[in-house]
Amino acid sequence: MMPTRLIFDEKPFAEPTVIEVPPGIVSATSRHGGVTLEQLPAIFDAGFKKLALCNPIGPGFAVYLGDPQVTFDLVIGFPIAGRVSLDGVDEGEFPSGRALVLSHIGGYDGLGAAWGRLMSSYVERSSGTARLVAEVYVTDPSVTKADVLRTDLLVFANDLPGS
């Protein structure tokens, strides 16, 4: 297992689990401001297509900054082994630190319920405010049937108890 590829365990996280995401996961990224949920499909389709030209070494991800129920900023990307050399693509890092993770197996239309389950567990374990949330699209939707897609959901917070 190589954490720099953003696959933190080969098996899905069936229950909310605290993990430590290592620093230094270099990524090709694209940032979008003032996003709404309705805009996500278009952003993901165009953005991931362009970011895939940067020779990713692992699955795509999205980092949500702000309240996804209103408008928010979004960073999408892929982990990479080299340097970014494509106009309009930034070099960044996937967030690091302690996170609560849960895998969702199935189509993206079921992510809302999975997020609800993860956030309920987060509220039970933490007294603070989440720093940010992210999704890692462990399986590729262009080659994986919707009912077996795996998306790892992460809530990053400084006060989560150890794993």
Descriptive report:
By secondary structure, the protein is of the alpha+beta class. It has helices spanning 40-51, 111-125, and strands spanning 17-21, 26-35, 60-66, 72-79, 90-93, 97-105, 132-137, 150-156. It has a single domain, classed as Alpha-Beta Barrel (Multidrug-efflux Transporter 1 Regulator Bmrr, Chain A). Strand 3 (60-66) and strand 4 form a beta hairpin. The two termini are 18 Å apart. The model has no long low-confidence stretch (mean pLDDT 92).
CATH architecture level-2 label: Alpha-Beta Barrel
Report the portion of residues in β strands: 25-35%
CATH T-level topology: Multidrug-efflux Transporter 1 Regulator Bmrr, Chain A
Number of strands: 8
- End-to-end distance: 18 Å
Shape: globular
- Rg result: 15 Å
Concise structural overview:
By secondary structure, this protein is of the alpha+beta class. It contains two helices and eight strands, in the order E-E-H-E-E-E-E-H-E-E.
Give the helices and strands, then pairings.
Elements: E1 17-21, E2 26-35, H1 40-51, E3 60-66, E4 72-79, E5 90-93, E6 97-105, H2 111-125, E7 132-137, E8 150-156
Characteristic terms for this protein:
163 residues, alpha+beta, Multidrug-efflux Transporter 1 Regulator Bmrr, Chain A, 8-stranded antiparallel β-sheet, 2 helices, globular
